[in-house]
Amino acid sequence: MQSQHFSLPIRVYYQDTDAGGVVYHSTHLNFMERARYEWLRSLGFDVHELINTHKLQFMVRSIEIEYFRPAILDDLLHINVNVIDMGRSRISIAQEIQRDQTRLVNATVHVVCVSTESLRPIRIPPHLREKIETPT
Amino acid sequence: MQSQHFSLPIRVYYQDTDAGGVVYHSTHLNFMERARYEWLRSLGFDVHELINTHKLQFMVRSIEIEYFRPAILDDLLHINVNVIDMGRSRISIAQEIQRDQTRLVNATVHVVCVSTESLRPIRIPPHLREKIETPT
Amino acid sequence: MQSQHFSLPIRVYYQDTDAGGVVYHSTHLNFMERARYEWLRSLGFDVHELINTHKLQFMVRSIEIEYFRPAILDDLLHINVNVIDMGRSRISIAQEIQRDQTRLVNATVHVVCVSTESLRPIRIPPHLREKIETPT
Amino acid sequence: MQSQHFSLPIRVYYQDTDAGGVVYHSTHLNFMERARYEWLRSLGFDVHELINTHKLQFMVRSIEIEYFRPAILDDLLHINVNVIDMGRSRISIAQEIQRDQTRLVNATVHVVCVSTESLRPIRIPPHLREKIETPT
Question: Among this protein's residues, is D18 annotated catalytic?
Answer without folding.
Answer: yes
